[in-house]
Specification:
By secondary structure, the protein is α/β, with parallel strands linked by helices. It has helices at residues 36-47, 79-91, 150-170, 184-189, 204-207, 209-219, 244-256, 283-295, 308-316, 327-331, 335-343, 354-362, 376-379, 400-409; strands at residues 8-10, 13-15, 19-21, 52-53, 57-59, 95-101, 130-131, 146-147, 174-179, 228-233, 261-265, 299-301, 322-325. The chain is 34% helix and 12% strand. Strands 3-4-6-9-10-11-12-13 form an 8-stranded parallel beta barrel, surrounded by 7 helices. It has a two-stranded antiparallel ribbon with strand order 1-2. Bound molecules: flavin mononucleotide (FMN). Flavin mononucleotide (FMN) is lined by residues 22-25, 56-57, 99, 178, 180-181, 231, 265, 302-306, 324-328, 412-413.
Length: 413
C-alpha cells in the first residue's frame, strides 16, 4: 500500500510523492502576470519537497479573475511569468500544475485585506460578471451577473482550450479545472445558481454539460501524457443546492470525457451550509473515497490534512491518492521534510535539493537547533525506518471557541 512519500504516476507524469501544494490565490498580480514574488514563493515550496505544486486559480479571461490583482492566462504578456514559475518548480524536482479558473458571479471583488466585497460593474476595478443565471450570490456580493448566452458559453470553451495550450507550452505538466467554491463551473452544477431553461440548466445531464464540453475542449488540445483533472464542487451542503449523489453520477460521465482525477471540494454556492467543512478534517476524504470506489478514478482531497499522521493515514488506508495542502503549505515551505521526520521516514533531507541535503545529513550538529522537530530515528541510519501500522485517524476535535472567529472570516478562492 502506498504512503505519503510513494511516487504517483498519472498518464505520462510521475510525482515524486503524494503531497500537493493546493492552489491558493495570492492577489499579487499586475495585469494578471506572475513575477519574482511568485517565483520565489513557489520555488521555496518546490525546494521544500512538495510533489505537485499549484500556484493558484489562474483565470482564462479577464472577467474570470476574482480581483484585478489576480493571475491570468488569457494574454501572451502573462506567459513569461508563468514560464519562470514552471522552470523554478521543475528545477527543484517538483511538478508544476495549473488550475484554470473562471469566477463567474463571484468576481469583481476587492482583496480579502480590503474587505473581500464585490465592486459594482461601473467601478474602475470592477466589471459586469457573467454566470449561468442572473442571480446574485448575495451578502457582500450583491450585484447580479448577466446570464451567459449559449454563444458566450462556447467562447469560454475556446478560452479554456487556448489557456490550456499556453499552459502546456510554458511547462505546466498537469491541468486542473476549478469547478468548485462557487465559481463558474460550480455555478452551472448547482440549482442555487443555475436556473436556466435551455440545454445548460434543469436536469443533472444539462447542469453537467458545461463540465463535459469544457473537458472535451481542453482534452482535444493537450498532449495525452498531461493529466486533466477537476476540482469539483461536489456538495453545496444545502438541500436546495448541489447534492453529492449527483456529483458521483456526473463524475462517472466526466471520466468518459477525459477526466483523469477528481479533486473533491465543496460547492460554494451558498454560505448556508449544514456542515462546517472548514473545520471537518474527513469531510471530503470520505466523499473522495466514494468517488474512487464507485467511479473507479484516482482522487484527491484537501481540508485540514496538515497533521503529518493524518495525511499519511488517508493515503495508507487507500482513501485518497493525493493529499492537497493549502494553509500548511503557506505556513511551512518545508512541510514535506518536516512530515517525513515526524513520521520516521528514511532520508527526509533527500526531499530538498542535493547540496542542502548533503549538508543537513552530514553536518548535523544539535538536532533541536536545525529548524525542524528532532526525529532521530529518521536520520540516524541509511536503512528505511520501519513505520508502525497506523492506529487509525487521530484528529484533535477543533475547539469551536478558538476557531469560531477565523471561520467566519474565511473566504476560499
Ligand atoms: C489564501 C488561500 C487561497 C486559496 N485559493 C484557492 C484557489 O485559488 N483555488 C482553489 O481551488 N482553492 C483555493 N484555496 C483553498 C485551498 O486550495 C485548500 O483547498 C483549502 O485551504 C483547504 O486546505 P487546507 O485545510 O490544507 O488549508 C485557497 C485557500 C487559501 C487559504
Amino acid at each position: 500500500m502506498p504512503n505519503l512519500f510513494t511516487p504517483f504516476t498519472l498518464k505520462g507524469v510521475t510525482l515524486r510523492n503524494r503531497i500537493v501544494m493546493s492552489p491558493m490565490t495570492m492577489y499579487r498580480s499586475v495585469d494578471g502576470r506572475m513575477d519574482d514574488y511568485h517565483v520565489s514563493y513557489l520555488g521555496a515550496r518546490a525546494a521544500g519537497g512538495f510533489g505537485l505544486i499549484f500556484p493558484e486559480q489562474i483565470a482564462i479571461t479577464p472577467d474570470g479573475r476574482t480581483t484585478v490583482s489576480c493571475a491570468g492566462i488569457y494574454a501572451e504578456s502573462q506567459l513569461e511569468g508563468l514560464e519562470r514559475v514552471c522552470s523554478v518548480i521543475t528545477s527543484m524536482g517538483g511538478t508544476p500544475a495549473i488550475q484554470l479558473g473562471h469566477t463567474g458571479r463571484k468576481g469583481s471583488l476587492v482583496t480579502p485585506w480590503e474587505g473581500g466585497h464585490m465592486l459594482p460593474p461601473d467601478h474602475p476595478k470592477g466589471w459586469q460578471t457573467k454566470a449561468p443565471s442572473a442571480i446574485a450570490y448575495g451578502g457582500d456580493m450583491p450585484y447580479a451577473p448577466e446570464e451567459l448566452t449559449v454563444a458566450e458559453i462556447h467562447d469560454l470553451y475556446d478560452a479554456y482550450a487556448q489557456s490550456a495550450k499556453w499552459a502546456v507550452e510554458v511547462g505546466f505538466q498537469w491541468i486542473e479545472m476549478h469547478y468548485a467554491h462557487g465559481y463558474l463551473g460550480a455555478e452551472f452544477f448547482s440549482p442555487l445558481a443555475n436556473q436556466r431553461t435551455d440545454q445548460y440548466g434543469g436536469s443533472l445531464e444539462n447542469r453537467a454539460r458545461f463540465h463535459l464540453e469544457a473537458l472535451d475542449a481542453v482534452r482535444a488540445v493537450i498532449p495525452e501524457r498531461i493529466p486533466l483533472t477537476m476540482r469539483l464542487g461536489a456538495d453545496d451542503l444545502n438541500p436546495e443546492g448541489t447534492q453529492f449523489d449527483d456529483a458521483v453520477v456526473a463524475i462517472g460521465w466526466m471520466k468518459e470525457h477525459g477526466l483523469d482525477l477528481a479533486d473533491l471540494s465543496f460547492g460554494g454556492n451558498t454560505d448556508d451550509m449544514r456542515e462546517n467543512i472548514f473545520n471537518t478534517p474527513r469531510a471530503f476524504v470520505e466523499r473522495a473515497n466514494r468517488v474512487k470506489r464507485e467511479v473507479g478514478i484516482p482522487v484527491g482531497a484537501s481540508w485540514n490534512l496538515g497533521k503529518p499522521q493524518n495525511a499519511d493515514d488517508v493515503v495508507k488506508q487507500g482513501l485518497v491518492d493525493l493529499v492537497f495542502l493549502g494553509r500548511p503549505a503557506l505556513a511551512n515551505p518545508h512541510w514535506p521534510v518536516w512530515a517525513a521526520r515526524e513520521l520516521g521516514y528514511d532520508n527526509p533531507f533527500g526531499l530538498v535539493p542535493d547540496d542542502w541535503g548533503w549538508w543537513l545529513r552530514n553536518f548535523r550538529g544539535d538536532q533541536e537547533s536545525m529548524g525542524f522537530p528532532a526525529a532521530p530515528e529518521a536520520i540516524a541510519g541509511a536503512e528505511a525506518a520501519n513505520v508502525a501500522p497506523t492506529e487509525g485517524w487521530k484528529v484533535d476535535e477543533p475547539d469551536a471557541s478558538e476557531n469560531g472567529a477565523e471561520e467566519e472570516e474565511l473566504k476560499v478562492a
